[in-house]
Design brief:
Elements (H helix, E strand, L loop, with lengths): L5 E5 L8 E7 L5 E7 L18 H4 L9 E3 L5 E3 L2 H19 L4 E5 L7 H13 L4 E2 L7 H11 L4 E2 L6 E5 L3 H4 L5 H10 L4 E5 L5 H5 L2 E3 L6 H14 L5 H7 E2 L1 H9 L3 H8 L3 H12 L4 E5 L1 H4 L4 H14 L9 E2 L33 H5 L9 E5 L3 H4 L3 H10 L2 E6 L11 E4 L18 E4 L18 H11 L5 H12 L2 H11 L4 H4 L2 H8 L12 H11 L1 H6 L6 H14 L4 E5 L16 E2 L3 H12 L14 E7 L23 E3 L1 H7 L6 E6 L3 E8 L7 E5 L4 E2 L8 E2 L24 E7 L1
Helix pairs in contact: 2-18, 3-18, 4-14, 8-11, 8-12, 8-14, 18-22, 19-20, 23-25
Bound molecules: ligand MGD (2 copies), iron/sulfur cluster and molybdenum atom.
Length: 753
Amino acid sequence: MPESAWRSTACILCECNCGLEVELGGDDGRQLVRFRGDKQHPASRGYACEKPHRLNLYQHARDRVMTPLRRRPDGTFEAIDWDTAIREVAARLAAVRDTHGGDTIFYYGGGGQGNHLPGAYATATRRALGSRYRSSALAQEKTGEFWVSDRMLGSSTRADFEHCDVALFLGKNPWHSHSIPRARVTLKELAADPARTLIVVDPRRTETAEMADLHLQVRPGGDAWLLAAILAILVEDGRVDHDFVAAHAVGVEPVLAALRAVDVAGCCARAGVPAAQVREAAKVIGGARAFASFEDLGVQMNQHSTLVSYLHKLLVVLTGSIGKPGTHFFPTTLVPLWGGASAQPSPVVGARIVSGLVPCNVIADEILTDHPKRYRAMIVEAANPAHSLADSKRMREALRALDTVVVIDVAMSETARLADYVLPAATQFEKAEATFFNFDFPENCFHLRPRLFPPPSSQPGPLPEAEIHARLCEALGVIGDDVLAPLREAARAGRAAYIQAFMARVLPDPRLTHMAPVILYRTLDLPETHREGAVLFGVALRAAMASPAALARAGFRGTPIEIAGQLFDRILAGPSAVVFAVDDWAEVLRRIATPDKKIHLDLPDLLDELGKLLATASAGPDPADPAFPMVLSAGERRSFTANTIMRDPAWRKKDPAGALRMSSEDAAELGVGSGDRVRLTTRRDSVVVTIEVTPSMQRGHLALPNGLGLTYPTADGEPATGVAPNELTASEDRDPFVGTPWHKFVPARVERV
Ligand SMILES: Nc1nc2c(c(=O)[nH]1)N[C@H]1C(S)=C(S)[C@@H](COP(=O)(O)OP(=O)(O)OC[C@H]3O[C@@H](n4cnc5c(=O)[nH]c(N)nc54)[C@H](O)[C@@H]3O)O[C@H]1N2
Ligand SMILES: Nc1nc2c(c(=O)[nH]1)N[C@H]1C(S)=C(S)[C@@H](COP(=O)(O)OP(=O)(O)OC[C@H]3O[C@@H](n4cnc5c(=O)[nH]c(N)nc54)[C@H](O)[C@@H]3O)O[C@H]1N2
Ligand code: SF4
Ligand SMILES: [Mo]
């Protein structure tokens, strides 16, 4: 195999987007034959886990959508051509806008683990329709943390696990879920170094917990008590970094007063962790040279999730763990994915909107009502909410209640099956694609992956989302040749002339500025392999204006326009990721973005919530509902899970149907063993599932994998493999502040069948 035959791309299965090289094969050169880690990629540096090796099953999925589809009155679909599809979709959405207002057209998705350009182009379509409300998966996991961070810090932090001496993973299993670059290498280094301490808080003895120096095997849902106890011990032992707090924070007194009142023994008992172990953890964290921590779904999809995010941030700030190597930092972002709460709540339920996202758990409530401002139509792009959001039955009912549902997807997903129109997208190897998960530090990188080959040539075949949105905007009459022709002409005269024309024609006209993504796509003269990268010119311009110092250190100099041009060209030159920002630890604390540039420790509503929690500390665990005595963690990351990106069950080398994990004690009591089938019942549904008995689970705790229960065509029809976790969850089980779901705390029972 000559080296030149390897093509540069990236993995699309988790947010790390590791750089990959792929060998193409097959008669038409469209088979993804072999993958290897890309050593040129500045963040992943040759790393890849076991998951991408059979990405060919994504590219050649048997349930791929190959033509636009329209639902017939009897519920079946018929193939239609693109002109009909675009004309009808534009007309139906325009009719909803004209009758009920554009704000009743809801947008969901915009990108998944590997593809964020669709969302960037969709902003034009949304503007053209006057659509105002939107959401994505972030509003069922990260919005609590974003809200707390925004109020405390004015921004969100990430952590430097490569250089810390104490690492904490709170409700996170990075061995399987990654989320930090080269996770397994970093974890192994942490575990092997006696001078460094790895702390894991997880009810399950996960692969990561197995490597830890300290595994705090918390009772499911017990994290708020555990963190309260750790913080109280820090205060009691005099381990608060008062110099850091005095220099950078305000409002410490009410926090210290609240923590002095904590009943440590009671909290440890509630958390189900021995007090001596909690004291040990507090001592290690308080004595750390550099403390790095990461909270994830185990706490963010659980009871008290926003309170836990607050307590977790207090731990970071009170130990002075921001702004030094091995601690926390504010990354330079190309597109900020986080933000604070909007002034206006959601129109029907009045739910808090954080980072511009309506809480996923209220979407069905916003539809299934006769409220005049209920959502009437929905555009779903690169997401599968009928499967991924709480309470699938109710979500299906909500989708059916809408006037028009348009799904833009590569596959006939659970959501696409409920659409009025399905618009087939090119896969992530058939178009240029990228993500804005750029959180590296001090060198931050961005990767525009050129397409490996064009979309299938069959007519009418799939199209890149950029093309779909451009056609929709044209059909809606918001852009036309009057605007596009002069810009195309300027493009032919070179980049400088183009920029000049763009600045003169587009920027002064707000109506056109809103259409900038599709205007750039229609008029910039880019190679076919990179065309969908056009929107990045606008992104580069934003970054040039927002982060001039970090971009200058990465070698981009001049006026913002010049910097944007250089960065854009550098991104297009690829083929691997490019370092677009070089940061400096000395600058981090200057990025505290609250109005007074201080960290705000005193959040009265959350201190109040802490007070309520502490009032129950000595009461012992809540009595379980006798009908549902166990706790189900609905949706765990495992070796072969990747949300619903990989639909073919053959992808999973192990455990293709996704077993229910159960402790040895519970299995013995029930008289069942690994491989047996049991009935699992929650308040919402009842399913029969195969179990895996494992000492890694604690008594009373159950876990189902995420992303299973997908239908997939076989010789015998379209069976579903495994259990779809959200058939079992309820949308009202959610956080009181930001509406994030309690998927890791689903009351359940198990019976023999
Ligand atoms: N293989 C794989 N990797 C992925 C993904 C994937 O689908 N598959 N998805 C990606 C995405 S979208 C995300 S958001 C991340 C999520 O990454 P993680 O948050 O690591 O994912 P989970 O496995 O869902 O949950 C983490 C842990 O929470 C624990 N947990 C359950 N209940 C509790 C509790 O009460 N307290 C505490 N402290 N822990 C608890 C579980 O035992 C589990 O080990 O993973 C990303 N990476
Ligand atoms: N019970 C429970 N529910 C959960 C979780 C859990 O732990 N437990 N985890 C949650 C989390 S953290 C997340 S992030 C969400 C994820 O849920 P979603 O955000 O809904 O994402 P996916 O399930 O990955 O769906 C991605 C869709 O994009 C399609 N797709 C792939 N490539 C392309 C492309 O190039 N273009 C287009 N247009 N479409 C494409 C795929 O076919 C698929 O239908 O699930 C959440 N749901
Ligand atoms: S860590 Fe994530 S992005 Fe990297 S190879 Fe594994 S699944 Fe793909
Ligand atoms: Mo996620």
